[in-house]
Amino acid sequence: MARTFFIGGNFKLNGSKKSIAEIVDRLNKAALDVNSEVVICPPAAYLDSTVQAVTSKQVSVGAQNVYVKASGAYTGENSVDQIKDLGAKWTILGHSERREYFKETDQFVAEKTKFALDNGVSVILCIGESLEEKKAGQTLAVVEKQLTAVIAEVKDWTNVVIAYEPIWAIGTGLAATAEDAEEIHASIRKFLASKLGDKVAEEIRILYGGSANGANVASFKDKKNVDGFLVGGASLKPEFVDIINSRK
Length: 248
Ligand code: PEP
Fold this sequence. Notes:
This protein is α/β, with parallel strands linked by helices. The protein has a single domain, classed as Alpha-Beta Barrel (TIM Barrel). It is built from ten helices and eight strands. It has an eight-stranded parallel beta barrel, surrounded by four helices. The model has no long low-confidence stretch (mean pLDDT 97). Phosphoenolpyruvate binds at residues 10, 12, 165, 170-171, 209-212, 230-234.
């Protein structure tokens, strides 16, 4: 089964009304590969204007995080109902920056994933190991533990995309090699098959994230378990279009 190539753009806490409008304008005007599905995730403050500005049918908008409640006394949080109300369809969850700086546990990420999915928001679920864990040979143990927490909560994985993002590669300019990413993605898929069955494992998209850019994505082209990219820094730049078009 062919999995649709998926590119997520994580703007993180970057941009302004003007610069994000320029990024969206560039995407609207570009000849994007019709076989690529694109989800851009601006800061929450710009979700509304981003949704309003997107004209390309293959570009959707997502949040970078949501909470486990849709409303109430939860100061500072993002609501699934409110992001849906704005027209956003996706959210990133479990990004390593949230796990590290905001102390999000595997269990909390799992609960948020379930809540988002139950409320009609699709999820880009981030997993990945630190440099220390990589050096200790724990990569698979770490990602399997992260996934196990979500597997315990989520039964239907149709609206989940997994982003394998080794923490040591995020924002460092040191991307994993395509060969290493392929090997880990294949292991993740095998693990998912053992827990969720062959069909789910075969259909789910597994993205690579970590210093992906316009120059290095071509090396992933023939990697059959790399179904796209979650892109941070380069999603703010013109080369994001090259990444979207890298399977053309
Ligand atoms: C990310 O933040 O998800 C990411 C992959 O960042 P970068 O592409 O900048 O490494």
